[in-house]
Q: What sequence folds into this?
């Protein structure tokens, strides 16, 4: 075997998709992803800017993949999006501006963390809702379980007072 | 010879027979229990054993077909090949839809058989009903297997060779992940059957709790191990150091685990205090429902796209109807019969029971968030026509914070007495764990990046020390050290197992905290270049060709130096499988249990004489799965407890009188 140029990530992605479908069919609890060993020349020279780019990239979905962010994906599209993020950062955009730019071009689907609006209110409110519902149910059940102590009958009252006075008879 | 006897036709016949037997296993014992006919009730065990035997035969037929390369069986032709190693020929049986469905049925039948074998101490009617419910569920899925996913279908003309298996799936981790995972999923069918039987009887008592608990512990241990194995596989195969992606596939396995963990704890309250009975019945139903949805909705593809569901309408409609029948039926039964169940014992909010309620509220809240996040995109697309994504950043910011109070309470819960607890003794026992956690918090704030990692490190230490404090208190560690081993041995195994599982959770959390500090670099290097990652110096020695059994590989050799000492030599590689014309990356990992060195070989650029390398240093990475292993072992230890073991009375008490320790007194009180 002679030296071989590695196949492009795009070629890699499609057999992985096949593997994904196979794993889905077998009901495995493991994600099939196309791990990218990205080209180092993609990265920004400034480490701080590169860190920002990676952070933004980890919140952007590779649109042709299965629930993968663009930093981790080996697909061609993800590479193009990585370039775009870095170009925007190099041009001086803030994190917010890069995100808005992406959403304007590709829609809400590209955000791995959906925006809070009336449609996603239930999604974002679920932690609080679940805690309230669980806590409320527990509190209600506890209250119902505790029967109100019935008042003492007259003879019991008398026995108690006698016991308290120290007369055990 | 073997293949002549165990033919695919025999397999299909055995599968059909098992379906008939399962139907009988459903109908007759239920009838017997309703009419109080002891003979009919006792028939349950026989049917369960026969059904299991039939499925063992069916499964053996499929294994033989795969092992002997019988490509006239469509399933084998589609998934196997002559050149595939024997291990993967056999484990490949459950690496596809039809085979895994058959395995699923086999494990369900084994559950029925296990209840029949170990359930001799159960009241006749309860045992009959439990086995009947398991039979009914099994019959449904065997019908599904027979009509829509027949693994024994013949292909004609038979191809000379099979299509082979995806190289990515040819991995030992992947080979044993499905049986373990399925044992977890399907194991929850037993608590489910107990819940349905209890609803039919209209009675839940402490004995019921004592019965449900070991089955739940067993299923939970398998599921924990299965999920951990899947996560470990992603780590060492997928190749960028990730271990959990909040993928719908993973969430589908996490949901029954969360619910099952809650069930595990609420069943304790039923057994010890006869409280939370209705809730526990509901949890048992919910856990198995999530297991079913996990295995079958995921493979329908509905979670990834509503459209892929239409690919195989017959399968999809059948499975939806089956799920609706099992889940909807049991929930309807619950709504109808739950009011009959008597409410149980009283307890103050600040008590062992109270802490277990808190555990349940928090675990179920995490489950609700994960379920909502997983189901939101398909529902948004269906109802509002909008495409949105819900990914890791969402779950990390909503589900993970809910784990903080859960872990905080985890150390305290086991130290609390039943019924009513007082704050002062608790604080006294948590002095040491608290001090250590505070120290880690202070050190972490100084040395770690980010708020959550610091919190996670402190909570991990807190949980582990809490588990140690629990055992130290039970064993009376201040007393005579000479009898300490004996006292430790006399501790209830269930208590030891619980502490071990809790400590395991702490170890996993420490692993997560460590991994958040992982560092990596992607570089383009020439042989001889040296690269520094996280304080280590990596030197690329060279890249060479190596031929494998059914692939060609390019293998890089990397030396790693810490200071001037050579600590590891790693060989990451890329394999090319000519049969599928597919390339996979083989990660190289060197671990010393404190941190992993992790190397991936990327593209080569022959024109420049360079290769792309991705080099990671992953602190505490193995702890994530080590912790999960401890959790599963804790479950196993707990199962070996004689009091939890089926029907065993407790003659141990009088023998141990002579040696009075708080541990024994606590054990006796329990």
A:
């Amino acid at each position: 075997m002679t030296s071989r140029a590695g196949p492009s990530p795009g070629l890699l992605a499609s057999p992985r998709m096949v593997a994904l479908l196979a794993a889905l069919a077998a009901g495995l609890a493991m994600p099939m992803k196309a791990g990218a060993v990205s080209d180092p020349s993609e990265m920004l020279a400034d480490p701080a800017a590169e860190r920002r780019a990676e952070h933004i990239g980890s919140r952007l979905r590779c649109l042709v993949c299965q629930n993968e962010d663009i930093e981790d994906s080996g697909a061609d599209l993800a590479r193009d999006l990585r370039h775009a993020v870095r170009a925007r950062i190099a041009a001086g955009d803030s994190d917010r501006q890069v995100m808005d730019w992406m959403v304007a071009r590709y829609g809400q689907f590209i955000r791995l963390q959906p925006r809070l609006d009336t449609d996603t209110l239930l999604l974002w409110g679920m932690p609080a809702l679940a805690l309230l519902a669980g806590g409320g149910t527990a509190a209600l059940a506890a209250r119902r379980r505790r029967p109100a102590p019935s008042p003492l009958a007259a003879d019991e009252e008398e026995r108690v007072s006698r016991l308290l006075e120290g007369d055990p008879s | 010879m073997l293949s002549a006897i165990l033919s695919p036709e025999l397999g299909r016949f055995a599968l059909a027979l098992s379906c008939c037997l399962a139907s009988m296993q459903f109908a007759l014992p239920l009838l017997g229990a309703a009419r109080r006919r002891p003979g009919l009730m006792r028939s349950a065990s026989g049917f369960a054993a026969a059904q299991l035997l039939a499925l063992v035969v069916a499964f053996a037929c499929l294994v033989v077909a795969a092992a002997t390369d019988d490509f006239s069986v469509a399933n084998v032709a589609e998934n196997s090949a002559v050149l595939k190693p024997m291990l993967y020929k056999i484990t490949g049986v459950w690496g596809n839809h039809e085979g895994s469905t058959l395995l699923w049925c086999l494990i369900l039948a084994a559950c029925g058989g296990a209840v029949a074998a170990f359930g001799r101490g159960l009241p006749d009617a309860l045992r009959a009903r439990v086995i009947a419910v398991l039979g009914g569920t099994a019959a449904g899925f065997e019908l599904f297997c027979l009509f829509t996913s027949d693994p024994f279908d013949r292909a004609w003309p038979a191809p000379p060779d099979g299509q082979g298996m995806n190289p990515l799936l040819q991995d030992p981790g992947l080979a044993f992940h499905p049986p373990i995972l399925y044992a977890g999923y399907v194991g929850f069918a037993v608590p489910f059957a107990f819940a349905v039987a209890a609803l039919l009887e209209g009675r839940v008592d402490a004995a019921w709790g004592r019965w449900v608990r070991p089955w739940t512990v067993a299923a939970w241990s398998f599921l924990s191990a299965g999920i951990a194995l899947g996560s470990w596989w992603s780590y060492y195969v997928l190749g960028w150091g990730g271990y959990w992606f909040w993928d719908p596939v993973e969430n589908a396995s996490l949901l029954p685990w969360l619910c099952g963990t809650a069930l595990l704890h609420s069943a304790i309250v039923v057994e010890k205090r006869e409280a939370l009975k209705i809730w526990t019945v509901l949890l048992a139903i919910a856990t198995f429902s999530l297991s079913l949805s996990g295995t079958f909705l995921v493979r329908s593809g509905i979670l990834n796209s509503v459209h892929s569901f239409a690919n195989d309408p017959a399968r999809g409609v059948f499975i939806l109807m089956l799920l609706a029948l099992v889940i909807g039926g049991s929930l309807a039964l619950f709504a109808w019969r739950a009011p009959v169940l008597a409410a149980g014992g009283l307890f103050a909010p600040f008590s062992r029971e109270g802490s277990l309620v808190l555990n349940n509220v928090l675990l179920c809240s995490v489950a609700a968030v994960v379920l909502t996040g997983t189901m939101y995109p398909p529902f948004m697309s269906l109802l509002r026509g909008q495409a949105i994504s819900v990914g890791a950043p969402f779950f990390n910011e909503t589900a993970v914070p809910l784990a903080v109070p859960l872990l905080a309470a985890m150390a305290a819960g086991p130290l609390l007495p039943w019924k009513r607890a007082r704050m002062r003794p608790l604080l006294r026992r948590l002095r040491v764990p608290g001090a250590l956690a505070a120290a880690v918090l202070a050190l972490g704030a100084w040395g770690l990046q980010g708020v959550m990692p610091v919190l996670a490190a402190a909570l991990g230490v807190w949980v582990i020390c809490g588990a140690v404090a629990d055992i130290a208190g039970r064993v009376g560690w201040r007393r005579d050290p000479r009898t300490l081993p004996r006292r430790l041995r006399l501790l209830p195994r269930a208590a030891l197992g619980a502490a071990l599982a809790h400590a395991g959770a702490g170890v996993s959390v420490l692993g997560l905290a460590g991994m958040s500090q992982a560092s990596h670099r992607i570089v383009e290097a020439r042989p001889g270049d040296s690269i520094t990652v996280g304080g280590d110096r990596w030197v690329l020695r060279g890249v060479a060709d190596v031929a494998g059994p059914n692939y060609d590989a390019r293998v890089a050799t990397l030396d790693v130096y810490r200071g001037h000492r050579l600590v590891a030599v790693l060989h990451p590689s890329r394999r090319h499988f000519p049969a599928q014309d597919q390339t996979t990356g083989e990660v190289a990992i060197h671990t010393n249990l404190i941190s992993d060195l992790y190397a991936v070989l990327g593209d080569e650029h022959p024109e420049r004489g360079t290769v792309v390398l991705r080099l990671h240093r992953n602190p505490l990475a193995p702890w994530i799965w080590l912790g999960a292993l401890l959790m599963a072992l804790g479950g196993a230890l707990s199962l070996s407890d004689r009091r939890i073991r089926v029907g065993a009375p407790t003659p141990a008490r009088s023998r141990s009188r002579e040696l009075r320790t708080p541990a024994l007194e606590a054990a006796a009180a329990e």
